[in-house]
Design brief:
- The complex is a heterodimer of chains A (238) and B (304).
- Chain A has one domain: Rossmann fold (3-Layer(aba) Sandwich), CATH 3.40.50.970.
- Chain A is globular.
- Chain A is 30% helix and 12% strand.
- With 238 residues, chain A is an alpha/beta fold.
- Chain A has a five-stranded parallel β-sheet with strand order 1-2-3-5-4, with helices on both faces.
- Chain B has two domains: 157 residues, Thiamin diphosphate (ThDP)-binding fold, Pyr/PP domains (Rossmann fold, 3-Layer(aba) Sandwich), CATH 3.40.50; 122 residues, Rossmann fold, CATH 3.40.50.
- Helices cover 36% and strands 20% of the residues of chain B.
- Chain B is built from 13 helices and twelve strands.
- With 304 residues, chain B is α/β, with parallel strands linked by helices.
- In chain B, helix 9 packs across helix 13.
- The chains are: A alpha/beta (238), B alpha/beta (304).
- At the A-B interface, helix 5 and helix 6 of A face helix 4 and helix 6 of B.
Chain lengths: 238, 304
């Protein structure tokens, strides 16, 4: 089990770092242009995989690992690039993106990719599953933490609100949600997204989704008696 | 006789007490009964009430299953199977985990509550998914056998309980069809599902038919059907949407020219309250209706 990185933030397993991610993404997209849906998650994913998650690419099924559930499965290229940089999948798989026999589709499939906890694509499934995972881990007395990344538009799904309420009531302190807010919800969130979590008893952090230091600080804030949400704001979706 | 649901509550409580991997996830329905058996207090981490949150009900159970628990998920049929349909489709088999769904409120069990509490579409809906075992028990003893078997394996299982029961249990010791009656060489084979057995037995008392009893409708026991079939004629009597298993019969008999009569509930909106018996009669699924349909089906037989 390792979450160590070198001073440059490169992975000890592959020698690849944050500065390699655009090139890795290009292996999938075929050109220098990629949509914000691919990159809005990039900094949060990098902080999670390089500094927060206790996971091991050489033992991705370790029962003691932290769980990361990507609920916002749309635009997964940044996720795949981070998985490759961290050694969960070979860089050589990236150019197979979306091909018939590829393990890498336009939405991820947890049954195909090592270290990927769930398949996602249909919005509003990840946080409800994560709530059950967190409760299951707590019932087992596990020290593992559960992280779930959702989008601000995805937050319109009622199923997510069912999970927000229940996780708050169950005081699932081993659960952290991350909302990538790129202002893509068509009807907006007056008062901010974090207020929806706060009213259900979560602790909240609002951070700049491009400030890796601030993201890291928010992700490791102690929350021993309640779940925690980090709302990471990035530039609005074009 | 205790009801199917009373047996379910007793057996589930026993499983929770004896197996630390069993979990019970509820959405208010049934919470009071499980409080009485004490499991809500004894196993707070494994018995969890979602409140009225049925999408979460399924996904939360799937999350527990990802951590090695065998979740039993219980609610009223339409709210267990239809409202969270996409969660059932995606959060169990697609995520590589499984669970046991156990419903009450089958078809017209609570007819006077209206259309919102009638779900004759639950079985065909679940049957669209790969590798689900679908039980339609006809007796509390069958519920117990099916639930205990489900608790000890890792399949996706749907157990559809009903307030309607047969006088006697038919424990087959497995998921196969069992032969209740064997007719002459000209007899059609009547496949009767779950709680329909007693009424079909009365309806066909003096008809020349072979009767197969089924309390596991998926997987469909094609082998037994082919082995008992005499005349190449099959009558399906299902206490839910008509035609639910017609394609399974056609597949089982694809090498044989055959005829099929599919009895079940029709698709029309039937805006009435009253009793389940009145509703089954309105869909031709009472004793007289079943008898008339089978008699007409046999009379349609064309001499070759």
């Amino acid at each position: 089990m390792t979450n160590a990185t070198s001073s440059k933030g490169t992975s000890p397993d592959t020698g690849l770092g944050y500065e390699d991610l655009p090139r890795l993404i290009t292996l999938m997209t075929g050109d220098e242009k990629h949509s914000f849906s691919a990159t809005s998650t990039l900094d949060v994913l990098w902080v999670l995989y390089s500094r927060v998650l206790k996971i091991d690419p050489n033992n991705p099924e370790d029962p003691a690992r932290d769980r990361f559930l990507l609920s916002k499965g749309h635009g997964p290229m940044a996720y795949y690039a981070v998985l490759a940089a961290r050694g969960f999948i070979p860089v050589e798989t990236l150019p197979t993106f979306a091909q018939y026999d590829s393990i890498l589709g336009k939405h991820p499939d947890g049954q195909l990719i090592p270290g990927v906890e769930i398949g996602s694509g249909s919005l509003g499934h990840g946080l409800p599953i994560a709530t059950g995972v967190a409760n299951g881990l707590r019932a087992r007395g596990s020290a593992s933490q559960v992280f779930c990344l959702v989008g601000d538009a995805e937050s319109g799904e009622g199923s997510g609100f069912e999970a927000i309420a229940m996780a708050g009531r169950l005081k699932l302190s081993n659960l952290t949600a991350i909302v990538i807010d790129n202002k893509s919800d068509s009807n907006g969130w007056p008062g901010g997204i974090s207020s929806r979590f706060a009213v259900e008893g979560w602790s909240t952090s609002d951070v700049d989704g491009r400030d890796q230091g601030a993201i890291h600080e928010a992700l490791v804030i102690p929350h021993s008696d309640r779940p925690h949400v980090v709302v990471a704001s990035v530039e609005p979706k074009a | 006789m205790p009801t199917m649901r009373e047996r379910f509550i007793a057996v589930t409580s026993d499983l929770l007490d004896s197996d630390p991997n069993i979990a019970l996830i509820l959405a208010d329905i049934g919470v009071g009964q499980f409080k009485e058996t004490g499991v809500v207090d004894r196993h707070p981490g494994r018995v969890v009430n979602m409140g009225i949150r049925e999408q979460l009900l399924i996904s939360f159970a799937a999350g527990m299953a990802k951590e090695g628990f065998r979740p039993i998920v219980h609610s009223y049929a339409p709210f267990l199977t239809e409202r969270p349909w996409e969660q059932i489709k995606l959060d169990f088999a697609h995520q590589g985990v499984s669970g046991i769904l156990v419903s009450i409120g089958a078809t017209f069990d609570e007819a006077d509550w209206g259309r919102t509490h009638q779900a004759p579409e639950d079985v065909p809906l679940i049957a669209t998914l790969p590798d689900w075992r679908i039980h339609v028990p006809g007796h509390p003893d069958e519920v117990e056998a099916q639930l205990r078997a489900a608790a000890s394996d890792d399949s996706n299982v749907y157990i559809r309980m009903s307030t309607a029961t047969n006088e006697q249990a038919h424990l087959t010791g497995g998921p196969g069809f069992s032969t209740i009656r064997t007719g002459s060489g000209d007899a059609p084979t009547v496949i009767v599902v779950g709680p329909m057995l007693d009424v079909v037995t009365r309806a066909t008392a003096d008809l020349d038919v072979t009767v197969l009893y089924v309390n596991t409708i998926r997987p469909f026991d094609s082998e037994t059907l082919r082995s008992v079939l005499q005349a190449p004629e099959v009558v399906l009597v299902e206490p839910y949407l008509e035609g639910t298993s017609t394609a399974e019969v056609s597949l089982a008999l694809q090498a044989t020219p055959h005829r099929v009569l599919s009895l079940g509930t029709s698709r029309r909106e039937n805006r009435h309250y009253g009793t389940g018996a009145e509703h089954f009669a309105a869909h031709g699924l009472d004793e007289a209706g079943i008898r008339a349909s089978i008699t007409e089906f046999v009379a349609q037989r064309v001499a070759v």
